[in-house]
Amino acid sequence: MTLTKEEMETTINWDESSPDADVLTYNRSLQRRMKEIGIEPYLNNGYGGKLYTIPKKLISIRKPRKLTVEQRQKLGARLRESRKQKSPNPSKNNVITKDSKKKVSNSMPPTGKKKGG
Question: 45 near 34, Cβ under 8 Å?
Fold first, then answer.
């Protein structure tokens, strides 16, 4: 059975007597984030929805940031400069050593994702 996008919702429920909230979500991105921070679902409904219990302090509703054009330009310039400093020459990330003639990678280790799966 395939659910429509309207049926694939995220619902957050809590009451004032408990420090925890229940989150039912079909959103795979949110499910992945829950897993990354170590929160496992206590129920899988079999249709792609998972139910979690999380501390209420993890739930945040924020007012969107309103930036002026000048602020946006300054932040963009700062980001570009930061990226340049982290990787001044991306072509130098792979180095061949004289001794081994073997390719050595200075980039981040693999994420553990399986190919083709």
Answer: no
Half-sphere exposure of 30 (CA within 13 A, CB side): 19
Q: What residue type is 67 in one-letter code?
A: L
Question: How many helices (DSSP H) and strands (DSSP E) are in the chain?
Answer: 2, 6
Q: Closest Cα to residue 11, out of 61, 50, 57, 55? A: 50
Burial class (CB in 10 A: 0-12, 13-18, 19+), 108: exposed
Q: So where are the chain's domains?
A: 10-58
Tell me if the pTM is above 0.85.
no
Tell me the per-residue pLDDT of 49-62, one tens digit each, with 9 for 90 and over: 999 999 999 999 99
Residue 110: the pLDDT is: 55
64/46 Cα distance (integer angstroms):
35
pLDDT over threshold 60, residue 94: no
